[in-house]
Specification:
- The protein has 132 residues and is mostly beta strands.
- The chain contains one helix and eight strands.
- A five-stranded antiparallel beta sheet has the order 6-5-4-7-8, with no helix packed on it. Strands 2-1-3 form a three-stranded antiparallel beta sheet.
- It starts with a helix and ends with a strand.
Length: 132
């Protein structure tokens, strides 16, 4: 991704901004320009709570290039409280102890960097929701 585009899209990513179609009520994350149900282009911005539960997950034991130091780690499909599903890494826990149905909350964390002196990239990851 180009640096300029990355910084342009950063605020919406950090806030987990979704859009809700004014005609169908369907929520999209990430944002879309056209609703797939109504062909409507009129949306309200919706900030997701970041809270949800693990619907399914897998544990990555052989990580791709650039993520070797994180293995083993979990990737899960999270059913957000707003009714949509989001995929993301589940961190700050022992992946062997995860269970379907566990509550999680999104946090923004470092993902990787473009070389030793390059841009640091961040993303949302999910952590166990311990009610703090």
């Amino acid at each position: 991704m180009e640096v300029a585009k990355h910084w342009r899209e950063t605020p919406a990513r950090y806030r987990m901004e979704a859009v809700k179609c004014k005609k169908s009520g369907k929520i999209f994350f990430p944002k879309r320009l056209i609703c797939t149900e109504s062909d409507c282009r009129d949306f309200d911005t919706l900030n997701l709570s970041g809270k949800g539960k693990i619907e399914t997950f897998t544990i990555i034991r052989t990580a791709p290039s650039g993520f070797e130091d994180q293995a083993p780690y979990a990737i899960g499909l999270i059913a957000m409280d707003e009714g949509i599903r989001v995929m993301g890494q589940i961190t700050d826990c022992n992946p062997e102890e995860l269970k379907i149905g566990d509550r999680v909350v999104s946090k923004f964390r470092r993902m990787n960097e473009d070389g030793k002196t390059g841009m640091i990239m961040y993303c949302y990851k999910f952590v166990p929701d311990i009610g703090v």
